[in-house]
Amino acid sequence: MTQLAPLPKVILGSLAFGVFWMLAVFPSVPFLPIGRTAGALLGGVLMIVFHVISPDDAYASIDLPILGLLFATMVVGGYLKGAGMFKHLGALLAWRSQGGRDLLCRVCVVTALASALFTNDTCCVVLTEFVLELAAERNLPAKPFLLALATSANIGSSATPIGNPQNLVIAFNSKITFLQFFFGILPAMLAGMGVNTVMLLCMYWKELEGAGPDEVAAMKEMEAVEEGRSPAPAAAVLSLANINNKSPAAVHGAAGLRLRRNGDGDDGEESVMSENISTKHRWFMQCSEQRRKLFLKSFAYVVTVGMLVAYMLGLNMSWTAITTAIALVVVDFRDAEACLDKVSYSLLVFFSGMFVTVSGFNKTGLPGAIWNFMAPYAKINHVSGVTVLSLIILLLSNLASNVPTVLLMGDEVAASAATISASAVTRSWLLLAWVSTVAGNLSLLGSAANLIVCEQARRAQRNAHDLSFWSHVVFGVPSTLIVTAIGIPLIGKINI
């Protein structure tokens, strides 16, 4: 049974956690506008300065497998983007799209299903900028699509042990097989995905009308002109042809007719031969580069599929992702600095500070004390008990994050369910997985996926959007409560 730490440690630890929480929610607070990343580091430093956690324990609390997985998926995502994977996905999402509402539904479905295989963090890393571009091309607001991406990624990731880190912990501790886990949560995931999509449509119905086809075409033409892709050069060629009374082909080929300048016939022939050799060389180099790009694209797809297969076989997720990333770097056979520069290192630093801060808060004993007080009322063989247990998980998952909540509560919840029946134990683990994952949609701090979407959207090169804490909460709270409630009765209905 967890007990509270000495009162000074509880007070100082809660203060440090409060500083972290405040800066994570309000990164530009007037009296300390240092941002989320520095705020997370400040929270971790305060935990050490206040002697809530020792320096050695602080280093040990940093979850390197999660950081490694996040780093590697950013690298893999960069290579997949270069391989055109997301252009194909864009074609799939945009194929016969009937407007913004239809596109929102497609984003929800594709994100949820992909998150079950690629993990929610991976999908959010590689899809955020892509979704923003889709919205910008159709003159649609970014916020509904960012909310759809983040919430659908969390809901979809609940269906498999590889969907998110807390599911991995649950699958390992409970010894539930991949198929048992999948079919045990699948009905709840599908129902939750549908309800979440309907709620998004209802809340943003008018905003998803977007621009008409003519307006979108006009915007694309203006963007083309601004980016130097307008047809103006062709018009200039025609004007030049008219001025000189020559055909456009003659104007384009004028440079090719100046091969015999300041020389006799033999010099001209040598110039023509040199030009032919140069043309053949360029053609050969161009063909070689095309074959190289085709090979790299094919290799990126193959190793990504291999990574997914390795996940399903139970291999270490972090090292599997890192191995995949390094394989892509090596086969690319070029300086990887350009790809590595696209990794959001500030996000990795933020998570490091968050791990230290959350670990220190857990050492105060407050999260454990909440469970000790509520455990007698959280029996899963009664509706009231399931309700109380779900509320505890929702609360702790948003205060101390879902992974520490699962580590803290897993054994206690399973031990309580063991007094009922063996099947109740399995259902208790699946219930913990479902509620702790969907709890991530309650606020920006509820899951890593939310923070990834927020930070990636803020730094996007096109259609950047600052998804604030309150704009997320307005949708996140009702969605989380309703989706959780609808999914709970469906947990464990299919037994394998």
The end-to-end distance, rounded to whole angstroms, is: 34 Å
**Radius of gyration of CA atoms, rounded to a whole number:** 28 Å
Separate helix tally = 23
Instruction: Name the helicity range.
Output: over 70%
Query: What is the tally of beta strands?
Result: 0
Largest sheet: none
The chain-level structural class is mainly alpha
Poorly predicted runs: 212-216, 218-265
Strand coverage percent: under 5%
Task: Report on this structure.
This protein is mostly helical and 496 residues long. The chain is built from 23 helices and no strands. The radius of gyration is 28 Å and the shape is globular. The two termini are 34 Å apart.
How would you summarize what this structure contains?
The chain has 496 residues and is mostly helical.
Describe the SSE topology.
Layout: H1 7-25, H2 35-49, H3 55-61, H4 64-82, H5 85-94, H6 100-118, H7 120-137, H8 142-157, H9 165-174, H10 178-203, H11 213-226, H12 232-243, H13 248-252, H14 265-312, H15 317-332, H16 337-340, H17 345-363, H18 366-374, H19 383-399, H20 402-418, H21 422-438, H22 448-458, H23 469-487
Helix pairs in contact: 1-2, 1-17, 2-17, 3-17, 4-7, 4-14, 4-15, 6-7, 6-8, 6-10, 7-8, 7-22, 8-10, 8-22, 9-20, 9-21, 10-21, 10-23, 14-15, 18-19, 19-20, 19-21, 20-21
